[in-house]
Amino acid sequence: MSVEQVFVDTNILVYAHDLDAGERHDRARLRLTELWKRKAPPAISVQVLQELYTTLIKKEVSRSRAEEVVSLYLRWRVIDNTVRLLMQGMEEQKRWQISPWDAWILAAARQSGARQLWSEDFSAGQDYDGLVVFNPLTD
Q: In the chain, how many domains are there?
């Protein structure tokens, strides 16, 4: 039996490393621990890593610690920013009437082969043509 590919959005990673996020921190860490145990690593994108790094710096995490955190996630399947991804994201934006940033997340998740997008920013249960949003921070 194969493991369903999961794509993780930035907000879930941020909560996992934000000690001030309370219950969201605890839930995000627990859910990411589950992902780390899978045979097939989850997917993220360069955009997610850029946003994670930037957010950690804004939260006054040291640059060296932020770099360590980003480096940790390089063990996962990373979808590169490419011209093709840029164009796919613009198509997703038109089709779904969402922000460009969210559209590039969708495009990267789709490119990874994910069937599930873990995010708090998208509507849980929303189906984007076979890519279904799951909020791992809710029961």
A: 1
User: Residue 1 falls within a domain, yes or no?
Assistant: no
Name the band, by pLDDT with cuts 50, 70 and 90, for residue 80.
very high
Residue 45 pLDDT > 90, yes or no? yes
- Domain CATH number, residue 75: 3.40.50.1010
Question: Reduced to 3 states, what is the DSSP secondary structure of residue 78?
Answer: strand
Q: In the sheet where 127-128 sits, what is the strand order? A: 77-79, 43-45, 6-8, 116-118, 131-134, 127-128
pLDDT of residue 136 exceeding 60: yes
Residue of 98, 17, 24, 20 whose CA lies nearest to 51: 17
Q: How far apart are CA 118 and CA 127, in angstroms?
A: 12
φ/ψ of residue 129, rounded to 5: 50, 55
